[in-house]
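Fold this sequence, please.
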Amino acid sequence: MAKRGVQLNVEEWASLEARRKELQSKTEALQAERNSGAKQVGQIKKSGGDASEIMARMAAIGDEIKAAEASLAELQTEIETKSLSIPNMPHESVPEGKDEDDNVEILKWGTPRQFDFEIKDHTDLGEWMGGLEFETATKLTGTRFSVSERSIGAFATCIDPVHAGYPYLKKWLYRSLCALSGQCRLFARYGSVA
């Protein structure tokens, strides 16, 4: 981890794991109590007794379980988020360095071609050819993303044509486009694609 410039806070991870185990044990104990109470209620009612006291406790346990499950889900989300910020371990052959300037060239194949014009970056070419829309993407998602005509087309095939105001789009064509895009949520409405 030190090679990647990351200091792992072991105490923090131990604390998170201890809290997770505690919440999970509490949740499971409450669930077990609820299950036991449900059996008791069934037995009491079967024998003709009054189970209202136990039923009131079961209702309270239900609320406690919901709160414990919510706390556990929140903690698990926090753990997952922190886990995703841990970088991969580099292979032992990877040289140490802070950025790409510290990289070591291992292999060079061929000679770079020389052009009598300025070489454009792929993003510049994408915009020039009309396939990438960075301004639109920035408005939609923030920086460092692009919107391509293909992605807009895939999205368009998943819009319900009737409710979107395109009733002339035949159902068979719609189903085919949805099948090709693999992203349609409306198969059930129009039946099988086959």
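Confidence is low (pLDDT under 50) at residues 185-194. The chain has seven helices and two strands.
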